[in-house]
Every structure is written in C-alpha cells, then in structure tokens.
Design a protein that fits this description.
Strands 1, 2, 3, 4, 5, 6 and 7 form a 7-stranded mixed beta sheet that branches. The protein has 6 helices and 7 strands. 13% of the residues are buried. The protein is extended and about 70 Å long. Helix 1 (43-59) runs antiparallel to helix 5 (151-175) and helix 2 (76-87) runs antiparallel to helix 3. 45% of the residues lie in helices and 21% in strands. The protein folds into 2 domains: 6-71 and 117-200, no CATH class; 76-113.
Length: 207
C-alpha cells in the first residue's frame, strides 16, 4: 500500500508575499515581537503592562497565537571574526587578551548550550468562503489537488489580514512591544526550523 509523503500531513499550501496560505484557504501572518524585561520593572510598571496587555486581548475579535522559538546559537562566525582581529592586531597586549578571550568563549560554548529565544505573534484570517472540512480532508491525505487562491481573492483576503495586523501592532505597542511582519524568506526559515528542529543553528550577528 502506497504511503503518502510527509508533506501531505503539513497544513501549509504556500507562502505568498510573506503570507502563509493553509490548505483550507485561510491566511496567517507572522510577526516577530521584541521582549520586555518584566522582572526589572517596578510593581507599578508591571501592573500597568499587565493591564494594557489584558485590554489588548479583550479588544481582539479574531484569533492570535503566541510562539516562542529557542535555537542553539552558532558562535563560530563570531570566533572567526575575533581570530581575524587578533591576526591584524599590532599591540601585543591586546593580542594576548584577544587570544585568552577566544579561548574563554570557546570553552564556555563547549560546556554550555548557548540558546537564543525569538518571539512571534501569528495573526489569522479565515475567509467566510473557506470550507474547513476541505482542510481536514487534505490533512489526512484525501485531497491531492493543489488549492491555489486566485490573485484577486488573495489580495482581498490579504487586505483583511493586514487590518488585523495593524490592530495587533498598535495593541502591542501600547504594552511596549515592537513588532515587524516577516517576509517570505523569514517565514520559510521559521517554518523550516519548526519542522527540522535538529538542523542548523542561529549564527551570532557580527559585532
């Protein structure tokens, strides 16, 4: 008996212009969100943040999801950068200090898993014309036909989604959280690491 490929169990149909289109025809936008060091806030500030966040949730009349992704940090590019600076350093004392620092970082990374956390908000839009049962059937491999939204229908649905994105952005801004909507490449990278958690590390940005 033939076995359906793994892709048939993934609810994604396509990623178009940064928008995730599911097999049931509904849309998702992914926003990356900044973090707040809540523990360093005063009790009054903490209470204000909680109150604003509660108000934000109460104003929503659509579904959102909050997702936190932890990925191991790849420090090799950073170590290579330090090594290149060491090689070009003319001050002997600075050269020694850089070498010792590189050794410390390499030893620390060997003994400790250095992780980075990213925060995301997923905003959804389900068009009234969507047949939810179709999406369920596709999940179980009963539908092999590719469902591609016509351009005019996609633009209409995306306009509705963007209105919801604006509501989320404004609501989180009042809490002190900045957001940015991911583009196609960023969304593809995010989902790749969701479905392949053991592959790849996030590189430390150059200093």
């Amino acid at each position: 008996m033939a076995t359906d490929p793994t892709q048939s169990f993934v609810p994604l149909e396509e990623i178009r212009d940064g928008v995730v289109v599911l097999k049931d025809g509904s849309l998702r936008a992914v926003l990356m969100a900044s973090s707040i060091n809540f523990a360093l806030k005063s009790s009054d500030e903490q209470q204000a943040i909680l109150s604003q966040f509660q108000n934000f949730l109460n104003t929503l009349d659509f579904s959102v999801q909050f997702y936190v992704q932890s990925r191991e940090l790849d420090i090799n590019p950073y170590l290579e950068l330090l090594a290149s600076r060491e090689a070009g350093q003319k001050n002997d004392l600075m050269k020694v200090q850089l070498r010792e620092y590189i050794g410390f970082i390499r030893s620390f990374a060997h003994d400790t898993d250095i992780m980075t956390k990213s925060f995301f908000v997923i905003v959804s839009y389900v068009p009234a014309k969507v047949d939810v049962s179709k999406g369920l059937k596709s999940l179980f491999g009963n539908s092999k036909k590719k469902n591609v939204l016509p351009d005019d229908a996609f633009e209409e649905d995306r306009s509705q989604l963007e209105q919801r994105i604006a509501v989320v952005e404004q609501g989180l801004a009042r809490v002190g959280v900045r957001t940015v909507t991911l583009g196609t490449n960023e969304v593809v990278d995010l989902f790749y690491h969701i479905f392949n958690p053991n592959e790849g590390k996030k590189a430390l940005p150059p200093q």
